[in-house]
Amino acid sequence: MTRAAVPRRRPEDPQRATFLELFFDLAFVFALFQLSHHLLGQLHLNGALQTLVLLAAMWGVWNTTTWVTDRLDPQSPAVQLLVVITLFGTLFLAAVLPRAFGDYGLIFAGTYVAIEVGRLVYITLAVRGTDLERLARPALWWACAIALVWIAGALAHGVVRGALWALAIVVGYTAYSVGFPTPWGGRVSELEPPVAAEHYAERYRQVFIIALGEPILVAGLAFSAGGVAPARTVAFVVSVATTAWLWRIYIYRAGELLSAAFAAVPVARLGRWAGYIHLVMVAGIVVTAVGNELVIAHPAGRTTLAAALVILGGPALFLAGRAGFEYLVFARVSWDRPVGVLVLAVLTPVMLLASMLVAATVAALVLFLVAHTDAARARHRPGELPSPPEAASQ
Description:
The protein contains 15 helices and no strands.
């Protein structure tokens, strides 16, 4: 066993996220802004699927960066350089994202492949001869295989490009979830839980707050662009209130106890599911941001089907992800989450008869009731401790 070129992070090292990681997150702010505007400009099924593929790709870059800074010492100059290079690559990806399914397909795919494969090559060489190599090499093998699908998609056009890129996303996420099995056998699914539980949890909380910045930014820009008018002002207040309820529902209490859940059951599977669940919630926030912009721009406009799906569908998607998050931390799901999703789904066709401001107000009211139910339930469960489903099986 040889010494790694890059030192590993140790459990006794400081667990707080570094300023470098927060700096990297600024690129994700821009990426989310680009994603919401891509969806707003293509508010139809194909546009929604394209946005989902692009979001999953950008999320993969962020999630792998978090994995790197959890396993390797973020104070190491080599790791800091790697994160800064990834920051530049992520900004470039976000810049060309609106035309990824157009004439910038090869540029987007090439940059994405360069980020994912390039840093895994670097990490594999940096940790060669250590136990981390058994994690890096299978991930690199899969990244190289999936890269071929990304490039093939970039060389295709239209529906074929979308299908190939969606296939690359599905294969990549599936390989990650089952531990990167390779032709030479073995998998790494259970070998490497998070090193620093507090760091891992803090990074997910931070990216969630960053995602909430998107509907806030969109609401502010949309309100500023159209001028102050009574209906627009009400729409602005409703949009900001909706974002506030999203924050409240997330943090109370599973968001507060995520690090304790990671510490209670230190297995890799828990961290992977946290990544998937946060992706769903972030997707819900992106859709909600699109709804906010529509409502503020046209508060008195009749709610079309597309508008109803984003105004009510964004909060519903968030609540679905939040139900999974609660199960991850407490091994249960409170009744108000699925009921909230059901109510929003039932009301969606009804809102076709109302204005967009009414639809947004209804969505905000549903979120308020869920948050209020959470607070009432918490009063009867003071000091509740996390009990992840993994704990029950031990």
